[in-house]
Amino acid sequence: MSPVYTIEMAYARMRELQDLANRSRAHQSVTAARRAEAAGARAARATKKR
Q: Cα(38)–Cα(24) distance, rounded to whole angstroms?
């Protein structure tokens, strides 16, 4: 007999996937902010040299 896949199981899996997506999105925004900050610092140093 195969296991029964219930709506509760499907809902739990959907929540897991949503949590993973949210964590990934949050991580991407932190990474993008760090990159922008680093680029701004590089630009500031380049401007000071002139």
A: 21
**3-40 pLDDT tens trace:** 889 999 999 999 999 999 998 888 787 777 777 778 77
Q: What is the pTM of this model?
A: 0.49
How far is residue 6's CA from residue 12's CA, in Å, rounded to a whole number?
Answer: 10
Q: Which residues of 5-23 are buried (b: 16+ CB within 10 A; e: fewer)?
A: eeeeeeeeeeeeeeeeeee
- The DSSP 8-state label assigned to residue 2 in this structure reads P
Residues 6+ apart with CB under 8 A from 44: none
CA distance 24 to 6: 27
